[in-house]
Amino acid sequence: MENKLSIKVNVADRTYPLNIDRKQEEVIRKAAKMINEKVLQYKQRYKDKDTQDFLAMASLQYVIKFIELENKADVAPVYNELKAMERELSEFLEKE
Fold this sequence. Notes:
2 strands; 66% helix; elongated
């Protein structure tokens, strides 16, 4: 239990109590800050919407960015292409 930490995080004017690993605190607080900044941007831009809309748009924007980064890190297509090239080279060398 000594590695656990009880914190309160504010997201979009709501406080959420969390029990986390101590090593996660910085990341969690940074994530909450980023969400709050994005929600504030939407609040300033769109006066006729509510907080739920802003949270949804912030979530969508961050998940899109996450997926884009995840796809960039996916080496499977490159690996598969290299395996196919290796097969072709092997077949060619066997014919020779």
